[in-house]
Amino acid sequence: TILGTSRDQPYQQPDGPAVVAGAVERHGLDAIVAIGGEGTMGVVNDLHRDGIPVVGVPKTIDNDIAGTDMSFGFQTAVQICTDAIDRLHTTAESHDRVLVVEVMGRHVGHIAVWAGLAGGATITLVPEESFDLQDVAERIIARHQHGKWATIIVVAEGALPLAGTIEMREPPVDTFGHQVLGGIGHLVAAEIEDRTGIESRTTVLGHVQRGGSPVAFDRVLASRFGIAAVDAVANGALGQMVALQADRIVSIPVADAVGHLKVVHPDLLRDGAIFHPPRPS
Questions:
Q1: Tens of pLDDT, residues 77-103
Q2: Choosing from 15, 50, 62, 69, which is the catalytic residue?
Q3: How much is the pTM?
């Protein structure tokens, strides 16, 4: 990581927790402040269970950690994606194309929904709701028939078509047991071009979403989380995760944040769907 720390999972190493406990004692640490996503928070929960002093700080651009309204990094990723969509509008309008923008979002579509709304995407596809490619194609055809030639589709990397509607290959798995996703944007673009006859292209934003200068919101949130984490250690509130709730920084048991993901709320999915082109009559 940027801190120079390891991504090793201690519970996948021989005597991993004992090595961590030894490091805490050897360096005279009051606690470990673990910064990361749902996998990291799961390790925080396990370390706390095994008596190792630890506090969690949620950091993921996917914004899928339960118990916190927002994790830092998310708003920056959304801004990067929105800026890209803004630029792609020009190309889509100049060449009468369908442009498919693939963004991150393994199991949830927070980035896709927020960036799709902010960037004025025509259709947004997310993991929370399987999509029908034929329905998407028919909506695009109807839109073009009404004189709207430029179409931008935002698709989260983990979005999937309805079961049985198209053949999908099984993705490989990395050393942490996570599926290596990516490629859904190319599949969607190819299918849309085949079904509509409209030239379609793909832009995969990939790791560009994870770097660069953070927006002001993320800088402030990270600072507030850092202060709260130090306070938690000082107060002996171990096994806690700092969180943002209703614009207040709170601490919650990390056990409450693991084992399930925070998906996009149905109300926000509905807000995004309102801007989808209607089905042909």
A1: 999 999 999 999 988 888 788 999 999
A2: 62
A3: 0.90
